[in-house]
Design goal:
- The complex is a heterodimer of chains A (259) and B (258).
- Chain A is an all-alpha fold.
- Chain A has a single domain, classed as MetI-like fold (Orthogonal Bundle), CATH 1.10.3720.
- Helices cover 81% and strands 0% of the residues of chain A.
- The longest helix of chain A is centred in the C-terminal third of the chain and has 39 residues.
- The radius of gyration of chain A is 22 Å and the shape is globular.
- Chain B has one domain: Orthogonal Bundle (MetI-like fold), CATH 1.10.3720.10.
- Chain B has 10 helices and no strands.
- Chain B is globular, with a radius of gyration of 22 Å.
- In chain B, 42% of the residues are buried.
- Classes of the chains: A mainly alpha (259), B mainly alpha (258).
- Chains A and B meet through helix 2, helix 5, helix 6, helix 7 and helix 9 of A and helix 1, helix 4, helix 5, helix 8 and helix 9 of B.
Chain lengths: 259, 258
């Protein structure tokens, strides 16, 4: 059952042929000591070397931990604020322009600001990830609340539900699909920001390993880590798709709610 | 109604910057590296007088737009082909899904190895992630073109080329433009990131330089410029889209597509 669901999320595996062909040609054509385009077998050797030195495991772990902590904080922050702004139309109007402007700041430039204010620390890294990735979640949640039909809210009112029950039974379930849409954007953004902070500040993680490899002109290591990052990002996206599917099958989005 | 929103929106901005100014200049918040908005404005005014800031804006804009154009051109072309042919889709889609999540930032070390400090390095970092929204949205747009429209093309015995240019591309244009809009935002982000860790020029490097030189007023100034730049680029693209697209497609909403 689970595997079936997993298989449905993925396109047919024959589609991997072009990628495999490119890697195969690369392997056959590239000279063994190529400084720019090392053959894939060398990537594997470099990654094996990193593992043997005990460098790769901790780096992957550090990156994943910061990614997860930042993203969870962003979900909590974005969803709570989004609900609040969404249910209070006055607040929505007054903050609209400010939020659009703050959202338009490219996430990378938040890093130097955070370094000035918080210094070099893992807390700074998590803060930056949370701040930058909260935006898509917040804005999608606000839009989700705004799209709830008046009729649905009226049902709650005519049943004399207290405010909290209306939130839990009507507003939050109706907002979930929009919230998840925001999280989808946030997942890929969080990976980017996590790596960026590591590359920029030298805090431990895969980003730092990549930059070290580049500074040592160790192209095999850089390409190998690129493949590792790609695989990690793919798995994280897939995991999100699974979770999204589970949540949406429990609280299915209503067409009428989104119109 | 519209004016009320505008009024409240501007009011919200004024309250935000007013609070910031009040808290910092009254000394309630004393934080070494957070200057008051008035100080940032003075820093910005000083920079606007010189040529350096304008050159930096020009460089970042050029890199972002060039990368965007390349990525959109290639992405849309591939996307249209994939959208047209289920067979091609079958034999490539898994590769696309495998490569798509690869974060653009991970290309910075590779790009530095290949190109050193150069505009090519920035372009690789921009194009690698930006091509995907263009590709996926144009593919989806072409796939969603109604069967009836393609039947019309067949009835009129249009050639393959004129079917694409007169029927498919106009029908898929809204989806393609949504991809282009997402791509534009991402291009600016990637250009700035590439300049921060890689090629030391442009706005991205300027922010880092001012941070390291402990000039928080100039650093915040550059940050505010980038926010404005992002909004202007987006507004510009929407303006162009409004000119190009007929009535019902004018509203280019990202909702549900992001």
């Amino acid at each position: 059952m689970k595997f079936k669901r997993l298989a449905q999320l993925l396109p047919p595996p024959v589609g991997l042929l072009p990628l495999a062909a490119v890697l195969l040609v690369w392997q056959c054509v590239a000279p063994d000591e190529s400084p720019s385009f090392p053959p894939p077998s060398n990537w594997w050797t470099a990654i094996r070397g990193l593992t043997a030195d005990g460098l790769l495991g901790p780096a992957v772990l550090a990156t994943l931990q910061n990614f997860a902590a930042g993203l969870l904080a962003a979900c909590a922050l974005g969803f709570t604020l989004g609900l609040l702004i969404g249910v209070l139309p006055g607040l929505r109007r007054w903050t609209g322009m400010l939020l659009e402007y703050l959202r338009a700041l490219p996430p990378p430039v938040v890093v130097p600001i955070a370094i000035l204010m918080l210094g070099f620390s893992p807390g700074m890294q998590i803060g930056v990830i949370a701040y930058t990735t909260a935006w898509p979640i917040l804005l999608n949640t606000v839009a989700g609340v705004a799209a709830i039909r008046e009729l649905q809210l009226d049902v709650g009112r005519s049943m004399r539900m207290p405010w909290t029950v209306r939130m839990i039974k009507i507003v939050i379930p109706a907002t979930l699909p929009a919230f998840l849409l925001g999280v989808r954007v946030a997942v890929s953004l969080a990976i980017v920001v996590t790596l960026l902070v590591e590359m920029f500040t030298g805090l431990p993680g895969i980003g730092l390993l990549m930059v070290t490899g580049q500074r040592n002109f160790n192209s095999s290591q850089v390409f190998g880590l690129l493949a590792v990052v790609g695989l990690l990002a793919f798995c994280l996206t897939l995991a999100f798709n699974l979770i999204e599917g589970l949540v949406l099958s429990r609280w299915p989005p209503r067409r009428s709610a989104g119109a | 109604m519209k004016y009320r929103d505008l009024f409240a929106g501007v009011g919200g901005l004024l309250v935000f910057f007013g609070l910031w100014q009040g808290l910092v200049s009254s000394g309630l918040v004393q934080y070494e590296y957070v200057p008051a908005p008035s100080v940032i404005a003075r820093g910005l005014a000083g920079m606007a007088g010189g040529a350096e800031m304008w050159e930096e804006i020009g460089h970042t804009l050029m890199a972002a737009l060039l990368g965007w154009a390349i990525a959109c051109g290639a992405g849309t072309a591939i996307g249209v082909v994939l959208g047209l042919s289920p067979k091609t889709r079958r034999y490539t889609l898994a590769s696309v899904e495998m490569l798509r999540p690869l974060p653009g930032i991970a290309f910075v070390p590779v790009a530095l190895l290949l190109f050193g400090f150069s505009i090519q390095m920035e372009l690789l970092v921009i194009v690698a992630p930006v091509i995907w929204p263009a590709l996926v949205n144009s593919m989806g747009g072409v796939m969603a073109v109604s069967e009836r429209l393609t039947d019309v093309a067949r009835t009129l015995r249009l050639s393959a080329l004129s079917t694409i240019t007169t029927i498919l591309l106009p029908a898929a244009a809204p989806a393609i433009l949504i991809g282009a809009r997402l791509a534009l935002t991402l291009s600016l982000i990637m250009a700035v990131a590439a300049e921060m860790i890689g090629n030391p020029v442009g706005l991205g490097y300027a922010v880092v330089r001012e941070q390291q030189a402990m000039h928080p007023d100039r650093m915040f100034g550059y940050v505010l410029i980038m926010g404005a730049l992002g909004i202007l680029l987006d507004a510009g693209l929407r303006g162009i889209a409004r000119l190009l697209l007929p009535g019902e497609f004018r509203r280019l909403s990202i909702q549900g597509r992001a």
